[in-house]
Amino acid sequence: MRLLWKLVILLPLITACAGDGPFSRPVFTQEPQDVTLPLASSQSEVTLRCAANGYPPPHFRWRQNGTDLDFSMSSHHRLDGGNLAISSPRWDQDTGTYQCLATNPLGTALSRKAKLQFAYIEDFETKTRSAVSVREGQGVVLLCGPPPHFGDLSYAWTFNDNPLHVQEDNRRFVSQETGNLYIAKVEPSDVGNYTCFVTNREARRSVRGPPTPLVQRPDGKGMGYLGGVLGRWLSLGGL
């Protein structure tokens, strides 16, 4: 029995001296990164990657929102080496924060937390937008007011029935922060209907708002009003 215990103690040392050691705690060589999927994604599987070195070689487990995943209870989650594979990811089940844990007898290393999220954009409300009135030579802003969404958006506007987007120049500017269209020194040719187009590339979807009429007020006493949101007069100069 004493000989057996000596072998148990000495065997790891012998193995280390043979070139597989020395002993070391787990150290990550790859940590999971944030992933954003389209809400209507048909993707069959998403993988969160994790890898670590250590001796003895570490084994891996994962947490979702702070709770350990049980790979024996469901085929929805699968451990592939250190990677976490999620089959047919769903917004209501898989959205959250994930963390990889690598463990060997010397300790446990915790990876950075990675988010799995789903990009979407809803439709605009169909409510008719009130006209925005402006006097010739003044500046005006048309509010886009994007619908609820998650993910980065890009904006464009169309004028009347022209399928081409309004081109930016020294009088027209589309803010990619808010989606608003700024027009400086309004001319009679600017009068018409403007429509905001919003694209969520991560969601792979574009939506269009209801048209906003821009009308000219010859008396100069106009007050812009857009979709129930108060407009404002701007002196934009050469914007």
From TrEMBL:
Repeat in keyword set: yes
First and last residue of the signal peptide: 1-19
Pfam annotation, one family: Ig_3
GO cellular component, one term: membrane
Gene3D superfamilies, sorted: Immunoglobulins
Domain Ig-like: residue ranges: 26-117, 122-208
Any one biological process term the GO annotation gives: cell-cell adhesion
Keywords: Disulfide bond, Repeat, Signal
PANTHER family, sorted: CONTACTIN 6, PROTEIN SIDEKICK
Protein name: Contactin 6
Organism per entry: Myotis myotis
